[in-house]
Amino acid sequence: MSAGMRPSPPPRKSIMAAGLNLQPQTVNGRLKLDLSNQGLTSIPEEVFDITDLEFLDVSRNKLTSIPEAIGRLQKLSRLDAYSNMLTCLPQAIGSLQKLTHLYVYRNKLANLPPGIEKLQKLTLLSIYDNQLTEVPSGVCSLPNLEVLSVSNNKLSTFPPGVEKLQKLRKLFIKDNQLTEVPSGVCSLPNLEVLNVSNNKLSTFPPGVEKLQKLKELGIYDNQLTEVPSGVCSLPNLEVLNVYNNKLSTFPPGVKCHNNKLSTFPPGVEKLQKLKELGIYDNQLTEVPSGVCSLPNLEKLSAYNNKLSTFPPGVEKLQKLRELYIYDNQLTEVPSGVCSLPNLEMLGVYNNKLSTFPPGVEKLQKLRELYIYDNQLTEVPSGVCSLPNLEMLSVCNNKLSTFPPGVEKLQKLRKLYINDNQLTEVPSCVCSLPNLEVLSVGPNPIRRLPDDVTRLARLKTLSVPGCQFDEFPRQVLQLKTLEELYAGGCKFDIVPDEVGNLQHLWHLSLDINLLRTLPSTMSHLHNLRVVRLNKNKFDTFPEVLCELPAMEKLNIRNNNITRLPTALHRADKLKDLNVSGNPMSYPPQEVRKQGTGAIMAFLKQEAEKDERILSAFNRLSVRMSQTQWKPLARSLGLSNRAVDAIKVSAPDDVPDQVYQTLVQWREKEGEAATLSALEQHLRDLDFQQLADQLFRAPRPEGAVAVTKGDSSDSRTSALTARVQPMVRSEVTRAHNAVFLSYQWDHQDKVLLLHDRLQERGYSCWMDIKQMGGGDSLYEMMDKGIRGAKVVVSCVTPPYAESKNCRDEVALAHTLKTPIIPVMLEKTTWPPPGPMSIPFAQLIYINMAKGQDEDPWKGVLFEQLKKKSTT
C-alpha cells in the first residue's frame, strides 16, 4: 500500500429499528441520518451507537425530549430538532464540542440547559418560536456565533455582554416584550441584519452609525417617536423598516410608511447603496429631491400621500424597476419616468392626470401599467409599442376611443377598460393571443365583437353594466372561460349553451331580468360561486340544486318564497344568502341560524319528501280504476278536480292516481303524511293496498319476500350487487341507481325499485311512461348523469326500444357502471346497438326457471370483482 493512503472503511451494516432505516448517508461530505417527519415520539436508542454521525435530523416529529445519550455523538456538527414538542434540552448538548449548527425552533422550550457556553464552535443558534423568558448569559460567550434567532418568545430583557459576539452577522429578537435594545448591539462590527420589530421599544441606543456593515434594520411595530440620526450614516443600508411607530420626524431612510410624516428631511442622498425606499401611507406633500440621486434604487413607493408634484431628475434612477406613486394629487406624471430603461411596473392610478407624457414607448421592459381612476381622455399611442406589457388598466377615466395597434401587445394577459365612455370593444383586442382577463363593463357598449371568440385563452370576462339587448352569445364559445361577470345588463334569458362552459367557476348575473335558468347549467360541474341578486325570480331555480361544486350562492332581493328541499344535494354550499326575499320556507327560525342549519333542514325535509313520493309511485301502479275515484273523494278532491284529472290523463290510471295524491298533498300540506294516507286506504277497506304499501321495514340486509314472488331472491342478489357500488355514496348522491327498462315490464321493475328503496338506495325510474320528446331526454340525461350505477332490465322488446338503447349508450359513453339483468330469455349480447356495451358484461339471470341464488361459483367472483372496481 502506498504511503499516505488509508484503507477504505468496511461497509456499514444496515441498521433497522421499529421499521425505520437507521442507515446514515454521506451528504456534502458529512455523515447524515435523516429521521425527519416520521411521527417519532422518541429517538431510537440505536441512533446513539452511530458515534461517527455528523448530522442528525429529527425535525417535524412529536418528540417531547432528547435523551442524555446524545452526548455520545461527539462528532456531531449539526442537530435539527425543530418543529417538535420539546420542553427541555439535555445537559449533554453542552458536551458536543464540534457542534456548529443547532436548530430547535418551534418547540415548547422554557429555558436552555446550563453549559451552553461550552459550544465554542457554534456558529448558528435558532431557538425562535418557543416559550423562553430569558436568554442565558452563556450565549454571549460563544465566540464564533454568526446567527442568533430568538424571535417570538417571551423575553423582556436581554443578557449583558452581547458586544462580545464579534462575529455575529444576523440578530433576530423580534416578537418579544423587550423595552430596550441591548446597548452592546451597536458594538457588533460585522452585524448585517438586525430585527427588533414588534416589541415595546420607545427608544433606540446611540451608536447605530458604528454598524457600518448593516444592510437591513427592522424596528417596525414599536413605540418609537424618533429614529436615531445615525441611520443616515450607514453606507451599506439597503432595507430599513420602521412603519407602525409613533414617529413625527424622520431622518433620511427607507420604509417609513404608515406613520404621520408631513415632511422629509434632507440627506437621503447619502444612502448610495439603497435599493428600496418606502415612504407610503403618510402625509407628505413632496418627495425630497435627494431621492433622485440614489443610483442603486430599484423600488420607490410613495403612494397614499398628498403629493401634487414630483422632484425633477427622476430619469437619473436608471436602475429603478418599480415606481408606485398612486393615491396622491398629481396632475402629471414626471416626464423623466419615460427615460427609465429598466422600469417594469408603474402605478400612477387615483390621481388627477388628464394627460400622459410622451415617450412611453421607450419603456421597453414595462410589464404592468396602472393608470386607472384619473381623468384621461385618451390612452397614449406609445402604449401599443410596449412589447413586454402584460397588464394594462385604464379603467375609470374618460376614454371614448382606444388607440390603434393594440394587437401588437402580444404578451398582454390582462386588460381593464371598464368605467369609461367606450361604445364598442376595439376589434383589435380580439387578436391578443395571450389575453386571459378582459374587463369592459360598465361602458355604453351594445354588443361584443364576433371575433371575441378568437380569444382562446380568455379565463375572465367582465361586462357588467353594458347595454346588451340579450345575453352576449359570443361568450358561449369561450371554452376556456372560468369567470363571467354580466350583471346589470337587463337581459331576461340565459341561453342553453351556457352549459358548454365547462371550466366556469364564477358566474355573476346580478341586476338582470331573469325569471328562469336553463337546465343545461347542471353541466357546470366546476361552478363554485353564483350571484343572482336583484332579478325577477318568483321561484327558486331548481337547476341550482344540481351544481355539485357550488360553495357560494347569492340570490338576494328577488321574489322567492320557498327553497326546494333538493337544494340539500348541493352539499358543498357553505355560503347562502337569500335575504330580501319574501321567504316563508324554511321557517325564519331556521334561516336565521345560517347556511348550515338551512341545509340540514332541507335534507331532512327531502328525505321525508322522498318517502312520500315513493309511496305515491308505488300506489299509483297498484290501484285500479274502481279504487281511484273513492280515494279521490276520501282525500277531499272536488268533482271538478277529479274531472280535470280524467281529462288530463284519459285511460292512464297510474297518472290519474299520482295526480290525485299530489293535489291532496298540495292541499293538505304538512298534514298529508304517510300515516294519513294509510288511514284513508284502510277506511276505504283497501286493506291489501295498505299492507303492500306500508309493510314494516326489514332490518338492513334482510331479504324482502312477498308471498308468491318467485323472483325475490334474485332481487336480493341484485341488491347485493348494487350495494358495494352505491352504498357509500347514497347519502350524498341523488338518484344513485338508474333503473332502465321497457314499459311492458313495469310491475316487475317496480318491485325491484321498492326493494332497493327499502334498503336505503335512491332510485330513478320512469313511472309515468313519459314517451319521447325533449322532456324525456332531459330527464334521462339528468338521471343517468346523477347515477352511480345503471341497472338495465333486459328483454327482447328492451333491446329494440330506441329510448332504452339511448339510455344504455349514454351510460356507456359516461362510463357509468352498467349491471344487466335478464328478465326474459334473450340472446346475449342482445343483437343490435346494445351488443357493443353489453358484450363484455356478465348478466344476472332473473328469468323464470333459473337458479334462485345466482351468487355462486365463478359468477359470484366476477360480479364481486366488478362491483368493487
TrEMBL record:
This is Leucine-rich repeat protein SHOC-2. Keywords: Immunity, Inflammatory response, Innate immunity, Leucine-rich repeat, Repeat. GO terms for biological process: innate immune response; signal transduction. Residues 733-867 form the TIR domain. Pfam families: Death, LRR_14, LRR_4, LRR_8, TIR_2. It comes from Branchiostoma floridae. PANTHER family: LEUCINE-RICH REPEAT-CONTAINING PROTEIN (PTHR48051:SF54), PTHR48051. CDD domains: Death. Belongs to the Toll-like receptor family. The keyword Lipid metabolism does not apply. Residues 627-697 form the Death domain.
